[in-house]
């Protein structure tokens, strides 16, 4: 009787250890998946932001020359465009938090809760590769 209780206790502790190990492995994989999604999204954002900055730079230079030529002094065009950017910076400083907070939280929530879609895509990719 004593021996049978000891065996049950030993099996219980072994099963508990295995369950904890499986849970740890699951959370490691989940963290890896979410980190990968975050890095991919961050990389895409950096590339898009860089391209947008270049576009804005060239449009600003062109607009500055256009305004400057109309006013008779190119430097006046650059000062006007610079002033518009200063006003835009002040507005963003005053209202930016309210305007950016909601979209950023939605974006992060989308990344953190996109695990189901990624799991389905991975399963489809694995079945496609195994069919070959």
Q: What does this entry look like structurally?
A:
The protein is mainly alpha-helical and 132 residues long. It is built from 3 helices and no strands. The longest helix is centred in the N-terminal third of the chain and has 70 residues, at 2-71. It starts with a helix and ends with a helix. 2% of the residues are buried.
Q: Brief overview, please?
A:
The chain has three helices and no strands.
**What gap, in angstroms, lies between the N and C termini?**
56 Å
- Care to count the β-strands? 0
Strand content: under 5%
Mean pLDDT across every amino acid position: 82
Radius of gyration: 29 Å
Main β sheet profile: none
Order of helices and strands: HHH
The number of distinct helices, counting runs of at least 4 residues, comes to: 3
Task: For this entry, give a set of tags.
132 residues; mainly alpha; 3 helices; 95% helix; 0% strand
Provide the fold topology.
Blueprint: H1 2-71, H2 74-112, H3 115-131
